[in-house]
Amino acid sequence: MAGELPPIIISDLFGVHRNTANQWAALAQDSWAGYLAALNSEAAGRHE
Fold first, then answer.
1. Is residue 27 a contact partner of residue 8, using CB atoms and an 8 Å limit?
2. Domain segments of the chain: what residues?
3. What average pLDDT score do residues 17-24 get?
4. What is the pLDDT of residue 38?
5. DSSP H helical segments within 1-48, as ranges?
6. Cα(43)–Cα(32) distance, integer angstroms
7. What single DSSP character describes residue 4?
8. Does 5 have pLDDT greater than 60?
């Protein structure tokens, strides 16, 4: 869905910040490798 709708609509539908919706849209257009890399970098940031 994030790759099909404009980020501002995603933001309104799910009640997330517009920057988060933009990140989702970017990840939806990437390959799985990009998605997994983003998850790993977020997880690493939480454990520091």
1. no
2. 7-46
3. 89
4. 81
5. 7-14, 18-29, 32-46
6. 16
7. T
8. yes
